[in-house]
Specification:
about 180 residues, alpha+beta, 2 domains, 5 helices, about 35% helix, elongated
Length: about 180
C-alpha cells in the first residue's frame, strides 16, 4: 500500500536538519538498496513501518506528504515514525481508517464461502458449516431459508472481491480532497 510508505528525500538547504540514520532501527524486517535509494521495512508493535530513503536523504532528511486522499494515512505513519525516533509508542490507525470487526468477519466469511464453492461445495453445504440444521430442511423451506440467502450474498461479495473488487479495500478510509474554489 503506497500510502503507508514514508518517503524521505534530501531537504532543501534553507532547512537546518541533522543526519538521519535509518539503519539504527531494529528490528529490520527487510532492507534493500535500489537505484532510487534504500527501501526499509521496520518491525513495530503497531505493524511494520515502510520507509523509502532517497539517495542523499541520510545527510539532510525531509519527508514528502503528497496532498491527496491518502495524506491523512501518511501523516499517521509519519507520526508513528517520529514517536519511534523519540522512543514512544503510538497506537494503531484511527477507527476512521480501519474496517470494523464486523466488516472484517464478513469479508473472511465471504472468502471462505468462495473457497468452499470452488472446492465443489454447494450453497447448502456452505450454509451447513455455520448451521448444521439446514441439511434437514425440506426443499421448499430451504428455498426461502435466510441461511441460503446469506450464503448467496456472501458468494456474490466474494466473486466481486476475487474479480478485482478487493482493490477498493486498499482505499478504505481515504478522504477525498475538497474541490478548489474557481479562480477568477
Amino acid at each position: 500500500m503506497l500510502s503507508a510508505i514514508i518517503a524521505l528525500i534530501p531537504a532543501p538547504e534553507i532547512y537546518g536538519t541533522s543526519p538521519f540514520f535509518p539503519l539504527r532501527f531494529t528490528p529490520q524486517l527487510n532492507r534493500g538498496l535500489a537505484d532510487d535509494g534504500l527501501h526499509l521495512v521496520i518491525g513495530d508493535r503497531s505493524g511494520p513501518m515502510r520507509l523509502w530513503i532517497a539517495t542523499g536523504a541520510d545527510k539532510r532528511a525531509a519527508v514528502v506528504i503528497p496532498l491527496d486522499e491518502a495524506c491523512w494515512i501518511r501523516l499517521h505513519h509519519l507520526r508513528r515514525l517520529l514517536e519511534r525516533l523519540y522512543g514512544r509508542v503510538v497506537g494503531p490507525l484511527p477507527n476512521t481508517f480501519r474496517p470494523t470487526r464486523y466488516r472484517i468477519t464478513r469479508l473472511a466469511c465471504a472468502l471462505q464461502a468462495l473457497t468452499a464453492k470452488r472446492a465443489g461445495a454447494n450453497v447448502r453445504d456452505i450454509a451447513a458449516l455455520t448451521d448444521a440444521g439446514v441439511r434437514t430442511l425440506s426443499g421448499s423451506i430451504w428455498k426461502d431459508a435466510h441461511q441460503r440467502a446469506r450464503v448467496e450474498r456472501l458468494l456474490t461479495l466474494a466473486e466481486h472481491l476475487a474479480g478485482g473488487g478487493y482493490l477498493a479495500l486498499l482505499q478504505y478510509g481515504h478522504r477525498p480532497l475538497p474541490r478548489s474554489a474557481p479562480v477568477g
